[in-house]
Specification:
The chain has seven helices and two strands; from the N terminus they run H-E-E-H-H-H-H-H-H. It is mainly α. The chain has one domain: Arp2/3 complex 21 kDa subunit ARPC3.
């Protein structure tokens, strides 16, 4: 692979990811409304399918730094970065078994990584966030009494969110890359 092509794709897709984040085209996940579905992960996965795993990680890093530079809250930006990096890692591991295996592996590694990260954030670093999650869960009609109940519900719902976000990021990326390859077969 030509270095110029890799640098070009990473740079352009990183800029597109930052632009999509700035536009804030997003919608909240039901119940845990602080979790947002957005389009900003798509350029990273387009990068993955065009030039590979390491360049996709570079693209995600550009996106992460862009989020921090524009003043995003560091914890949220870091969690997003971890979600993307863990998804790419799972995809790289399963690449030789095809696209379905990549998607499943990416989702599984993302869910595991984000569950661990959420336990650290909610139970150890910022237990006040658990109280906020409890209020959201109660508002939605779920019966939660103990902190353990809140943590379990939050982890399960976050796992569902991460599985959905993986599909919402990768499937459009595949369609975009297929279109690019039809129109630019040398790419």
């Amino acid at each position: 692979m030509h270095t110029t092509k890799v640098v070009s794709v990473v740079s352009i897709m990183g800029a597109v990811a930052i632009s999509l984040s700035i536009l804030r085209i997003e919608f909240p996940f039901p119940i845990l409304i602080y979790l947002k579905f957005d389009l900003a992960e798509i350029p990273t996965f387009v990068t993955y399918y065009i030039v590979g795993g390491f360049p996709a990680i570079l693209c995600a890093t550009i996106h992460f730094l862009g989020l921090l530079f524009r003043g995003s809250e560091p914890l949220g930006a870091s969690m997003k970065f971890l979600a993307i990096i863990s998804t790419i890692s799972g995809m790289v591991v399963a690449r030789r078994w095809g696209v379905k295996a990549e998607i499943l592996s990416g989702a599984l590694i993302r869910i595991i990584a984000m569950s661990i990260a959420n336990i650290i954030v909610l139970a150890l670093l910022f237990p006040g966030y658990l109280a906020f999650a409890k209020e959201l869960l109660k508002t939605s009609g779920l019966s939660v009494e103990t902190e353990a109940d809140v943590l379990i519900y939050t982890l399960v719902l976050t796992a569902i969110y991460n599985a959905l976000h993986t599909a919402l990021s990768i499937l459009p990326s595949l369609a975009i890359v297929e279109t690019i390859r039809k129109r630019l077969p040398y790419f």
